[in-house]
Design goal:
With about 260 residues, the chain is of the alpha/beta class. It has helices spanning about 200-205, 210-225, 230-235, 240-250, and strands spanning about 1-5, 5-10, 15, 20, 25, 30-35, 40, 45, 50, 55, 60-65, 70, 85, 90-95, 100, 110, 115, 120-125, 130, 135, 140, 145, 150-155, 160, 165, 170, 175, 185-190, 195. The protein has a domain at about 1-145: UDP N-Acetylglucosamine Acyltransferase, domain 1 (3 Solenoid), CATH 2.160.10. Helix content is about 15%, strand content about 30%.
């Protein structure tokens, strides 16, 4: 093993001279780190992982075996210009995950802090993930997907390009998501619909019972109103910050949203 400033590089690893490694970084056997990569302090790169150029990894990340970060976007329009993957701190990226860099010059595919990307999940070009996002095994994100803080994407979920997943949303296993998923709700099915409030997730996140009740009432209004504007009249009369967030999320949607089932 080669050691420098607390950083340990296995002799079977290949680390390009232009890579920038922080202190206490570990690089495992047969891993490859290309030029123009930045890896923050305390990050561990396991065997056979590939960290490609233009990748920026923060502190205390764990990258497991056979992960590939920074691959070129799967986009016919990609010109080969410099684009980036930017990953925050404290993330766990399990075996076989792939994360592609952005498709437009100087653009970034971004992953926040304390996310958990499970086996064989895929983050395509230009995706934007907040903090504490979970992608379960084989969750697949198309390009330009946005996932807000605390959302959980279950196994084998597929998400269409440009869709947004709201804060503390939960996408049920195998869902086919082609429209935005409401914050605080469980969305599932094929095609996907909002089914219920993500009560367990909200309780774990410390939402008070009164706020959860307001979210339940908001879901009921969306489910029973004859017209969306009728539901807005009810929702906009609430003093709940979470309900106001739901209204703003719907009003800013470009693809439409996964409506509640009646």
């Amino acid at each position: 093993m080669l050691e420098h400033s607390g950083t340990t590089i296995h002799p079977a690893a290949i680390v390009a001279p232009g890579a920038q490694l922080g202190g206490n970084v570990e690089i495992g056997p047969y891993a490859i780190v290309e030029d123009d990569v930045v890896i923050g302090e305390g990050t561990r790169i396991a065997a056979h992982a590939v960290i490609k150029r233009y990748t920026r990894l923060g502190r205390q990340n764990r990258v497991c075996e056979h992960v590939v970060i920074g691959g070129e976007p799967q986009d016919y329009k990609f010109s080969g210009a410099p684009t980036y993957v930017s990953i925050g701190d404290g993330n766990l990226i399990r075996e076989g995950v792939t994360i592609h860099r952005a498709s437009t010059p100087e653009g970034h595919t971004r992953i926040g802090n304390d996310c958990f990307l499970m086996v064989a999940s895929h983050v395509a070009h230009d995706c934007q993930l907040g903090d504490r996002v979970v992608l379960t095994n084989s969750a697949l994100l198309a390009g330009h997907v946005s996932i807000a803080d605390g959302a959980i994407i279950s196994g084998n979920v597929i998400i269409h390009q440009f869709c947004r997943i709201g804060r503390f949303a939960f996408a049920g296993g195998g869902a086919r998501i082609s429209q935005d998923c409401l914050p605080f709700m469980i969305t599932e099915g094929s095609p996907a619909h909002a089914r219920a409030v993500n009560v367990v997730g909200l309780r774990r996140a410390g939402f008070p019972p009164a706020e959860i009740l307001s979210i339940r009432n908001a879901l009921h209004a969306l489910r029973t109103a004859a017209r969306l504007e009728d539901a807005f009249q009810v929702l906009e009369g609430s003093d709940s910050a979470a309900v106001a967030e739901i209204v703003q999320f719907i009003r800013s949607s470009r693809r439409g949203f996964s409506h509640p089932t009646r």
